[in-house]
């Protein structure tokens, strides 16, 4: 599943689409990826996502990819490769591509998605801007 959210994520009105997203999540770690919020309070974005998805039955872990060095991390890439759900939060529109392009972590996220993981992005985390998520890798 691939979900594009234009903005206003984690707010009333998104319940139906987010329930479908949760239902498609694999039995594997579920990650919130705060890359786009790295300059504007990534912990707040993570906390908001966790609070939103918990009543929907999904416990999120943070995949802390805030700078290019994080995106090159073998350890974070291994975590991502095993993921069953990814939500790229909104924030700085240029930061997601700047940090994730040609990175181990993005390649691992795409690999997990191609293997059946759910992938969603909102606002600046909206992978629609890249047409095909595989192209960022």
Q: What is the element string, with H for helices and E for strands?
A: EHEHEHHEHHE
How much is the radius of gyration in Å? 13 Å
Distance between the termini: 18 Å
Q: List unreliable stretches of 5+ residues.
A: 125-131
Amount of helix: 25-40%
What summary fits the major beta sheet? 5 strands, parallel
How many strands in all?
5
Report the portion of residues in β strands. Answer: 5-15%
Overview of the molecule:
By secondary structure, the chain is α/β, with parallel strands linked by helices. Helix content is 37%, strand content 14%. It has 6 helices and 5 strands. Strands 1-5-4-2-3 form a 5-stranded parallel beta sheet. The chain is globular and about 35 Å long. The two termini are 18 Å apart. About 5% of the residues have low confidence.
